[in-house]
Amino acid sequence: GRHLPLASDPALEAPTQFAMEIYNRGRDPGAAAVLQSVRGRSLKMAQGVLYSLEVTLAEPPCSPPTACKHPQSSGTLLCRFEVLDQMWAKQTLLEQDCGQPGSQPLPWSSDHQPPPGLPSKARNQSSPDAGLLAEPHSSSLPRMGDSVELISLFKDFLTTYNKSYANATETQRRLGIFARNLELAHKLQELDQGSAQYGVTKFSDLTEEEFRMFYLNPLLSSLPGRALRPAPRARGP
Amino acid sequence: APASWDWRDHGALTAAKNQGMCGSCWAFSVTGNVEGQWFLRRGALLTLSEQELVDCDTLDQACGGGLPSNAYTAIETLGGLETEKDYSYEGRKERCSFSPDKARAYINSSVDLSRDEQEIAAWLAENGPVSIALNAFAMQFYRRGVSHPFRPLCSPWFIDHAVLLVGYGDRSGIPFWAIKNSWGPDWGEEGYYYLYRGARACGMNTMASSAIVD
Predict the structure, then answer these.
(1) Are A48 and A8 in contact (CB under 8 A)?
(2) Of A10, B117, B158, B160, which is most buried by a Cβ count within 10 Å?
(3) Are A39 and A73 contacting, i.e. CB atoms less than 8 angstroms apart?
(4) Contact between chains at A196 and B146 (C-beta distance less than 8 A)
(5) d(CA A171, CA A158)
(6) Cα–Cα distance, B201 to B206 (Å, whole number)
(7) Which residue is closest to B156 within chain A, CA to CA?
(8) CB B1 to CB A202 under 8 A?
(9) Chain A closest CA to B156's CA: distance in Å?
(10) Beta B161-171 vs B5-6: how paired, if at all?
(11) Average pLDDT, chain A
(12) Chain A interface, mutation test: which of B112, B143, B202, most A Cβ atoms within 10 Å?
């Protein structure tokens, strides 16, 4: 993942515009919420790019007030959007959650108990400004408030899988990858439609690129396989 | 197909193996399939060699990846597979040292299976474990349970891992495929992955195949 500075990266514009279009869908132009600021980050995956956006928007005053769908939502709102941008498909809005700034924790994981292997408090939820989205690129490592639990998990990981690194710099780098992978596992957990549990595995210190390079097989989707004769259908009960 | 089936209950599977840091999943998927076919046709469960395929299958690219369909051809051309004990796994390509007189299992041909999951289940229950390939995106952080990844995150167009389908059933009403992986017993459920059945999850139905032992 890449932590982006506030609204300074053009890459955020398209997913933000898409999220706002979805948000304002069905409204008259004069009644549409107006984007005020955006900050976010992108997570590049094999399947596309996942944008996590923290958007401040202004809801127009209701006129008449009874026309407000959610009267409490007029004024300034803080929304969190997750947009998946795939090369071969349209953008998809995976998540939308809005509230008054400061009135509630950011929705990330607030309704989800993390599975075993995930920190119960992967990020500070008490203040939108303290959310992980606000972190600069260089601080993808856990913040102070979260570091004890995360480092404890990382130590357990090193012990369980008998891992060691060449030096402190590499250890620090792997801790950063580990932290980002926990976020990704958390996202998989939130979106899983079965009963699976995702979390720390022996591959949790690998970037997606490393994992693909060392353990996967890109030829399966890039080479045409030799045609085999069709199997006869099963016959017996 | 029967409502559930698991070839582990019928002695057709060897222990979970570990491919290490080598993209040789295709070899593990195919040897697992041949181990099952040999057991069902000849009555002996042999642990067969993946390293032979990594070293000697010139149609594929060793740790750089390969295709099960090529591996079947290689096994036929070479004249069989040695056992793991005779040709043990190193996790890197080395010079081919296959000895025909050490081959202990042979195949006669290979087949492509239907893409219909019901038909795959029926074929598996009747004929043995099946080599498949899937999108492994959700597997890096999988620990246990029946995995049913959000479809856009597990597209059938990005097939990148070959595994072995060994059974199917339901867990608390969730239909699953039981899949033998090659990342060692310390991954997943003792080396196994459980994937949602009935939705072509992660493209698991796109490349099902098997060797045939007459």
Answers:
(1) no
(2) B160
(3) no
(4) yes
(5) 10
(6) 10
(7) A221
(8) no
(9) 10
(10) antiparallel
(11) 74
(12) B143
